[in-house]
Amino acid sequence: MVYRLSLLSDENDFFRRELLIDSEASFLQLNDFILDSLGYRPDELTSFYVCDEDWQKEEEITRMDMGSRPDEDSLLMADTLLEDKLERRGDHLFFVFDMLSERGLFIEVEELQPGKSLETPQMILNEGKAPKQIASFEESLTRAAAISGTPFEGEDFGDESFSEDELDLEGFDIADAESLY
């Protein structure tokens, strides 16, 4: 069977990719195809999350064993086939390509094509510019503030609660500080 998958980004409304991939392909093959087709470096950590219909993360599929707890199954991309986790039209995945900023792509099964097979994945739709693979520090802060709803006020952070009068340097010796290094 062949899946037609759509890839969307919450960072660029004009970005959309559609691809065809065999149901017997591994998540590692899907990972490598996505990275290559978007021009991303393959040496960054990535992972997939199987999501429910509301895009809530349920199971993580990682590229390497991340040392999960013994009571949890560790799903690896190389050992997990797409057909093991994708069963019907509308199934959702979230592909994390920037682990530090938790940025990723939303993937949805658009169509199942039974009775067909495919040796290698194929990109069939390529619209819009892909998000940068790694966000800058400033972009990460902006994204974190947008998600949390709390703006980051750089230089003003914590000023309202700081008073130099409360700073007690008595009893503090430079030798004390040097011993910390």
Notes on the structure:
It is a single chain. The chain has 181 residues and is an alpha+beta fold. The chain has a single domain (2-138), classed as Structural Genomics Hypothetical 15.5 Kd Protein In mrcA-pckA Intergenic Region, Chain A (Roll), CATH 3.10.290.30. It has helices at residues 27-38, 82-85, 137-148, 174-178, and strands at 2-8, 16-22, 47-51, 57-62, 75-76, 92-98, 103-113, 122-127. Strands 5-4-3-6-7-1-2-8 form an eight-stranded mixed β-sheet, covered by helices on one side. The longest helix is centred in the first third of the chain and has 12 residues, at 27-38. The N and C termini lie far apart (60 Å). The mean pLDDT is 86.
Quick take:
This protein is an alpha+beta fold and 181 residues long.
List the helices and strands and how they pair.
Layout: E1 2-8, E2 16-22, H1 27-38, E3 47-51, E4 57-62, E5 75-76, H2 82-85, E6 92-98, E7 103-113, E8 122-127, H3 137-148, H4 174-178
Parallel strand pairs: 4-5
Antiparallel strand pairs: 1-2, 1-7, 2-8, 3-4, 3-6, 6-7
Primary descriptors:
181 residues, alpha+beta, Structural Genomics Hypothetical 15.5 Kd Protein In mrcA-pckA Intergenic Region, Chain A, 8-stranded mixed β-sheet
Low-confidence stretches: none
Strand order of the largest sheet: 5-4-3-6-7-1-2-8
Whole-number total of structural domains: 1
CATH topology grouping: Structural Genomics Hypothetical 15.5 Kd Protein In mrcA-pckA Intergenic Region, Chain A
Query: What is the level-2 CATH architecture name?
Result: Roll
Total helical segments: 4
Q: What's the average pLDDT? A: 86
The oligomeric status of these chains comes to: single chain
Give the distance, in angstroms, between the N- and C-terminal Cα atoms: 60 Å
Give the helix/strand class: alpha+beta
